[in-house]
Amino acid sequence: MHKHSIKFALAIAAVATLGACASSKNKADTQYVARDVSTLYNGAKYRLDRGQFKLAAALFDEVERQHPYSPWARRAQLMAAFSYYMNTDYNEAIQGAQRFLSIHPGNKDAPYAYYLISLCYYEQIADVTRDQKITQQALDSLGELVRRYPGTRYAADARLKIDLVNDHLAGKEMEIGRFHQRRGQWLAATLRFRSVVDKYQTTTHAPEALERLVESYLSLGLPEEAKKAAAVLGANYPGSKWYERSYKLIQEHPPKAA
User: Which of 62, 127, 134, 189 could make an S-S bridge to 180, C-beta 3.0–4.6 Å?
Assistant: First the structure.
């Protein structure tokens, strides 16, 4: 059986389990038959508007399968991807949007297809205690959207999400750095905090990263490096608690006489 037909049949079966109270008209709407393109598309839109996302996606897929050369087919591809996204079938949504872009790379809806891919990754971002592969994929896809279509409204939203994703990645680096600190692994901790300062300096984690660098450098016996980190912290975040802690640490560890 064709892949799309399998999905369609599964979707029909899922709807059938919702209850025996469905009217005969609804059963006729969902029964698999060859139909004209407007009937299929409008039926898919009807299901989408009522939150029946899985069935809507299957019906939009049928638009393309039954009428591949119709102007409706192109729109149905994106609508199917959106329906999968709404149903949290993110892999299906990504594949659908990518397929749309491979067939219609210069289409006016290409920015939205890139945006949809970005959203699928963004919605899957895990907490900072877990692997951040998806987070990096979200950052990459958001960045590609901004580079390709900088003047679109999708790019404007992507820029906001990039800031949030960077903050998330910085938080992951901080979590690992603190883990190393607690175990006295000062060099490993320093590398993580340095990464935050170098790569994520505009995030909310930068002040703490600098203060943690002061702690780590002092523990490594590198007071001059600690002073440099404290100076950067004081110049950029003079009223923060992290600078107060750094200043106190520097005062407690005066340079040794030559």
Answer: 189
Q: How many residues comprise the chain?
A: 258
Q: Is the dihedral of CA 184, 186, 192, 196 positive or negative?
A: positive
The residue written with tokens 């939203």 in the block is: 157
Q: CA-to-CA distance for 154 and 186, rounded, in angstroms? A: 42
Q: Give buried/exposed letters for 126-152 (b at 16+ CB in 10 A, else e).
A: eebeeebebbebbbebbeebbeebeeb
Pair 257, 223: CB distance under 8 Å: no
**CA–centroid distance for 142 within its chain:** 8
Q: Cα 158 from chain centroid?
A: 10
Question: Which secondary structure element, helix H or strand E, spans residue 35, and what is its range?
Answer: none
Query: Residue 145 is encoded by which pair of tokens?
Result: 């959207």
The DSSP secondary-structure symbol of 130 reads: S
pTM as predicted: 0.74
Which is more confident, 98 or 66?
Answer: 98
Residue-wise pLDDT for 154-185, tens only, equals 999 999 999 999 999 999 999 999 999 999 99
Pick the closest to residue 57 from 16, 21, 4, 102 (CA basis). 4
The mean-pLDDT minimum among 67-76, 90-99, 160-169 falls in 67-76
